[in-house]
Amino acid sequence: MKTKTRCGWCLSSDLYRKYHDEEWGTAVYDDTTLFEFLLLETFQAGLSWITILNKRENFRKAFDNFDYQKIANYSEEKIQELLLDAGIIRNKLKVYSAVTNAQNFIKIQEEFGSFSKYIWAFTNGRPIDNKPKTLKDVPATTPLSDAISKDLKKRGFKFVGSTVVYAHMQATGMVNDHIAECWTRT
Q1: Among 34, 10, 39, which Cα is nearest to 22's?
Q2: Count of CA atoms in the C-beta half-sphere (13 A) of 44
Q3: I need a labelling partner for 89 at 20 to 30 A (CA). Which of 20, 56, 158, 164 fits?
Q4: Does residue 49 carry a catalytic annotation?
Q5: How far apart are CA 185 and CA 179, in angstroms?
Q6: Catalytic annotation present for 181
Q7: 78-94: pLDDT as tens digits
Q8: Residue set of the binding site for Zn(2+)
Q9: Rounded to the nearest 10 degrees, how much is the dihedral formed by the CA atoms of 125, 171, 160, 36?
Q10: List of domains in the chain
Q11: Are 58 and 88 in contact (CB under 8 A)?
Q12: Which helix (H) or strand (E) holds 109?
């Protein structure tokens, strides 16, 4: 049986391979899923993605299945409960930013009809296929992620630097950075 060629970053664990094969780079237009990745990416800032993937189900449970309506209304008591939850990243600023970002996410929905319409407008509603030959060809940021980051920050979002935004774009399929030899391209 021939083995699949994958992007090199996902080879260290079955969880990474599954995420790569089934999610990463697949276009997401659903607001709930877009928020899930936004929350996870903001917690990932400064950490490895595998750390977040390993805790993803803990995050799902702790953050009410990524229900941004609920998260936007978290009480101080709930925030303190999250800060004691060893199953997630207990960074105080990131926990508070999850609430702030959920509130701003809803404001964008109110302004644009959905977060999906807002975020995908940056790519005219279509994924950008960068067609990288190797992992070295995959950038950490782009002028587009710089622009989205700047706009999100202007709207009050936290932990949305250009690197976090670009990772979000990759995760949600706004950009396709699967390397040329990756089986997902065949």
Answers
A1: 10
A2: 24
A3: 20
A4: yes
A5: 8
A6: no
A7: 999 999 999 999 999 99
A8: 7, 20, 178, 182
A9: 100
A10: 13-185 (1.10.340.30)
A11: yes
A12: helix 92-112
φ and ψ at 12, to 5 degrees?
Answer: -80, -15
Tokens of 63: 């953050």
pTM for the full model? 0.94
Are 72 and 40 within 8 A, CB to CB? no
User: How far apart, in whole angstroms, are the C-alpha atoms of residue 167 and residue 119?
Assistant: 14
Tens of pLDDT along 85-128?
999 999 999 999 999 999 999 999 999 999 999 999 999 999 99
Burial call 113-134: b when 16+ CB within 10 Å, e when fewer: ebbbebbbebbeeebbeeebee
Tracing tokens 């936004």 back to the chain, one arrives at 38
The tens digit of pLDDT for each residue in 126-151 reads: 999 999 999 999 999 999 999 999 99
For the chain, state the CA radius of gyration. Answer: 16
Contact 23, 30 (CB under 8 A): no
Confidence of residue 155 (pLDDT cuts 50, 70, 90): very high
Would you call 41 a catalytic residue per the annotation? yes
**Residue of 9, 49, 96, 183 with catalytic role:** 49
Measured distance CA(86)–CA(19) in Å, rounded? 23
* Phi, psi angle pair for 176, to nearest 5°: -110, 110
Task: Give me the catalytic one of 16, 24, 36, 41.
Answer: 41
